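Worked example 2:
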Amino acid sequence: MRVAVLLPCYNEETAIGDVVKGFKRAMPDALVYVYDNNSSDDTVKIAKQAGAIVRTEPRQGKGNVVRRMFADIDADIYIMADGDGTYETKAAKKLMKALIDNNADMVVGTRSKDAGDKLYRRGHRFGNRLFNGIVQFIFGQQTTDMLSGYRAFSRRFVKSFPALAHGFETETELTIHAGQLRLPVIEVPTKYFDRAEGSVSKLSTYKDGFKILSFILFFFKEIKPLGFFSLVAAGFAALSLIAGVPVVLDYFETGLVERFPTAFLSMGLMLTALVSFICGIILDTVSNGRVEQKRLAYLSYPSVADTVE
């Protein structure tokens, strides 16, 4: 059974050597790949010295790296982590075992809650909970640590994953993809460590948080267009009623329509609401067709259980 460890990296010279060695100790039969994303330090050199297979992705952003890794590497089981040394390398076997035992398609290594504010900043903790709740409400995918970068995947998951994200939204896309296809997902608690001295986080709390929220809304429109455009239609309809009710009341009192501009505005808003709702119905049919295509692509590869047997 072929196992690949995938490590996207950008300027992680202080940690990448220990991370590669840690995964090689935990999974001696696995191939460890480091995908460098235009690092300006010695990440590539140190990764090679540690025994990793190093490749590059020139397009900046973690999502671009994940897309390249998933396209290039052919394996039966994939373990993905960050190269900053914050994830527990010894837990890789535990993630793989959970994947095999449950015949799952994705196992998420949830970061331990006792990490503290120094390791798991309060703003990140709040944002993680917020995004988890939004995704669960919209897509029905239950998860407690959607933004964790420590995961195990089956081959059928990786090869059916469209990978549209460019940056740190990729973890959100992984979760939504599993929810859209209703794939079996398992969560396994893992330890979470502080960064190595000299290593700096590339995640911007507000900038990347806004990107993640925008990406969730984008997928809401793409995956559930009927729900999205129904909300848009409801908004326009509400504005139409607010503008039109006074005109109707005046008509019943005087028998005259004295505010033609307001009446036309109300009618235009209601027509916009109707068009939005019809667009939602049409796009919902298109979205269902896309889901069927993804499902067929997913089913074209064997499950983890079949691979083990």
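Confidence is low (pLDDT under 50) at residues 114-118. The longest strand covers residues 3-9.
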